[in-house]
Amino acid sequence: MTNQALVIGASGIVGSAVSRQLVREGWAVAGLARRPSAEPGIAPISADLLDPPVLAAALSSLSPTHVFLTTWSRQASEAENIRVNAQMIRNVLDAVRPSGSVRHVALVTGLKHYLGPFEAYGKGALPQTPFREEQGRLDVDNFYYAQEDEVFAAAARDGFNWSVHRPHTVTGVAVGNAMNMATTLAVYASICRFTGRPFRFPGSEVQWNSLTDMTDADQLARHLHWAASTPAAANQAFNIVNGDVFRWKWMWSRIADWFGIEAAPFDAPAPLEQQMADDAPIWAEMAQRFGLAEANIDTLISPWHTDADLGRPIEVVTDMSKSRKLGFLDYQASDEAFFQVFARLRERKLIP
């Protein structure tokens, strides 16, 4: 029997990567997004996850064996994040229930499971690093927990297996994505090269000096496929990172070298939301001069999210032992993951 995948959020960094991975593995893939793009081997489905009748109609002809939940919607408060994002998960799982075909549901969340939501990010009593899956939930409201609870309840009711995947910051290519550090840094570095501005690290001194890790979208996609295909991985939550560690004071120079600029020495945090606040006209000028495909800088960058990640006042390192013990041994060098994203952005004429 051919595996039939339904990827929710198929136009995003993670959703597009897992869709391509599953096609390579010979799966039949349907990709749902509000504005799905045309991708070889992926059946596009357009629907609003907060409109149950429209969503049910859009999915009525499908009989997915596997559902991959790779999207979220940013709201003004954590209470709204919980309400909206839990509702989206519930609506999807309600819409696929009539088919009776679902065997596995994979949910992508992240390290805010350990660090807390944006309103309380990296504050209060946090678990020791490296973060391990057996560390329990924080005593704070968190939309990741609400998403998990929706999956767990549906699994108990409908009899499918589940997996939860917790990446660190994800690198990949997806225009218009709300959590897009690699593209944000590529645009920032390109502007620094064009204007001669110093390439300043936007985050905290702790992040500059401490060990950290990241997750490439293709590494996460391989992990999602592995968990969906490995019986021992059923009904488990997993951390997923590239497998290496680095310090940003090293990585910042690596990124600067790729763009042919010099990394400024760290002196104080320089958030990108402030540094790039007036860069829209500069980017529009660059788009015209270099023939770029996107002249609207706000479509490409998410400085608020990059600032949140790089501004954390604590070390963030992730343990991968649980996956390793069960057989997932893939590895991706994090600097090369950045370079691959930069090269793809340049190929698509999204940066000069």
Distance between the termini: 46 Å
Helix residue percentage: 40-55%
> Which H/E pattern describes the elements?
EHEEHEHEHHEEHHEEHEEHHHHHHH
Rg on CA atoms, Å:
20 Å
Strand order of the largest sheet: 3-2-1-4-5-6-10
Count the helices. How many? 15
| Biggest sheet features | 7 strands, parallel
Which blocks of ≥5 consecutive residues have pLDDT under 50? none
Overall 3D form: globular
The SS-based structural class is alpha/beta
The amount of beta strand, in percent, is 5-15%
* pLDDT averaged over residues: 94
The tally of beta strands, per DSSP, is 11
Short structural description:
The protein is of the alpha/beta class and 352 residues long.
Helix-strand layout with pairing:
Layout (H helix, E strand, L loop, with lengths): L3 E5 L4 H12 L3 E6 L8 E5 L5 H8 L6 E4 L8 H19 L7 E5 L3 H4 L27 H16 L2 E7 L2 E2 L9 H15 L9 H5 L1 E2 L2 E2 H13 L6 E5 L5 E2 H12 L12 H4 L4 H11 L6 H4 L2 H8 L10 H6 L7 H14 L5
Parallel strand pairs: 1-2, 1-4, 2-3, 4-5, 5-6, 6-10, 7-9
Antiparallel strand pairs: 8-11
Helix pairs in contact: 1-8, 2-3, 3-5
Protein name: SDR family oxidoreductase
Pfam families: PRISE
